[in-house]
Amino acid sequence: MGFWRSVVATWFLLVVLWLLSSVVVADPVPPCEFPAIYNFGDSNSDTGGISAAFVPISAPYGEAFFHKPAGRDSDGRLIIDFIAERFKLPYLSAYLNSIGTNYRHGANFATGGSTIRRQNETIFEYGISPFALDMQIVQFDQFKARTTDLYNQVKSTPDAEKLPRVEEFSKALYTFDIGQNDLSVGFRKMSFDQLRAAMPDIVNQLASAVQHLYEQGGRAFWIHNTGPIGCLPVNLFYVSNPAPGYLDEHGCVKAQNEMAIEFNSKLKERIVRLKAELPKAAITYVDVYSAKYGLISNAKNLGFADPLKVCCGYHVNFDHIWCGNKGKVNDSVVYGASCKDPSVFISWDGVHYSQAANQWVADHTQNGSLTDPPIPVTQACRRM
């Protein structure tokens, strides 16, 4: 009996091994091949638009990566730059930058200070861009029409290599990072109840922009929610002895973050409906808020400095010299210089994030762990 048991066991093992060898291991889903990226947003993703339209951003902005000012409100790269890197695409040229631009693989319509809703004030008052989201969409329409016409004229010449292909607009990735300035304007002009009442209209206008791009052939959309605006160090520049409960346990303005969370909730609800309205679209909601707040709340353990400390600029008591500017403090000229090691700072200039923080947030959102549906950016063309 022992002999036959051994034979049966051997036969059974051989059958199992044969079955295992016959199983075809499915290849992982290949990444999306986006030929281009078209971005819409504010200073969190502006790669040179506001610099081209108005006064150029000066040194020491850009010093950590580009080693010179590069139209970005940071010491280096932004999240949109890391998205481009993920697809091995060039960094996006700003639509408004007329010199040395290459639009073969996309364009960036974001400008610093942009809002979703138009604001009735000029950039010289509070820094609000005249290029609200609806204007960025108009610019995209013009860009698409004019580059298509121009490509048909020069397609047999080297100039064609700087222009997009008309058939690739439908294959591109459309990214959004906008809404923070709508909240900051609201904090300045409205009561919280008024801002709360305005939120449905704000998110509907963003949805209208997505619908328009869908009608133009766009199919893949990667939409950031807004970050913890109450954690921007600028919020404390002019505040002394805040009342109990004004700040949360990490030093952020509690009420402002609560409004950002409410805005994000309404945005996510609208995106859910948008998915039903645009059945051929792949729309991904990206929870940038959780990534940024996670970084800020755990800064020390992650090797970062105090998240409320600013790398670039002079901010002592109530004397404020902004990054890259000069001013007088007690009759002495003071320069708003950069810190020695920007890579350990989360805040670059009190309003914008450092390259190191942008990279951390990019790494923790592009992997799909904070997105709905939970897919990495490399799969953003997939409908889930």
From TrEMBL:
It comes from the Eukaryota. Keywords: Glycoprotein, Hydrolase, Signal. Pfam families: Lipase_GDSL. Residues 1-26 form the signal peptide. One of its GO terms (molecular function) is hydrolase activity, acting on ester bonds. The keyword rRNA-binding does not apply. InterPro entries: GDSL, SGNH_plant_lipase-like. Belongs to the 'GDSL' lipolytic enzyme family. This is GDSL esterase/lipase.
